[in-house]
User: Fold this.
Amino acid sequence: MKQVLLIVAAVLAVTACASVPAPAPAPGPEARPYQESDTASADVDAALARARQSGKRVLLVMGANWCGDSRVLAGWLATDRFVDLIERQYELVYVDIGMPGPDRPNVGVARRFGVPELPGSPNVLVLTRDGALVNPTTATTWRNAGSRTADAIYDELATLADLPVTPGDSD
Assistant:
C-alpha cells in the first residue's frame, strides 16, 4: 500500500510541475536615458546639425524614465545590434516628456515637427537631416514598445532609415 501511495504522490508531483505555466519572458533590457532638461530643443538642433554633417537621419525618442515602455525601448537601443544600426543610420537624441498632463515638458519639440499631441510614451520621430518628419503616422504608436520584440523594433527602425521622403523634402 505504501508503494502505491508513493507512486500516486510521484505522479501528482510530476503532473503539478507540468501544469505550472512557464514564467513570462523578461520584456527586454531597460535603460533610463530620459533626463529633465531645459535644453531639449537645442539638443535636437545639435542632432540635426550632426545629421547634416553625416548624411544620417535623426532618431528622436521622446519618453520618460517612469514609463516601462520607454525604458525597454531605450534598453533595446543600447544593445550591440541596435547600436550598430544607429551608428550607421541615425543621430540619436532622447527627450524627456515627463508625466502626462497639461504641463508636460517638451511637447513643443514634437509640435515643431508636426506632431500636435503626445498621447502616451514613448514616441519615436524619425527626421531627415533637414527636419522633415519621416513617420507621421507611426510616431506616436510606440506606447506598446515594451511588448514588441527586438526584431520588430529593429525592422521598423531599419525601414524608417531608408524610407523615401515626400517629394520636396530633402534627405
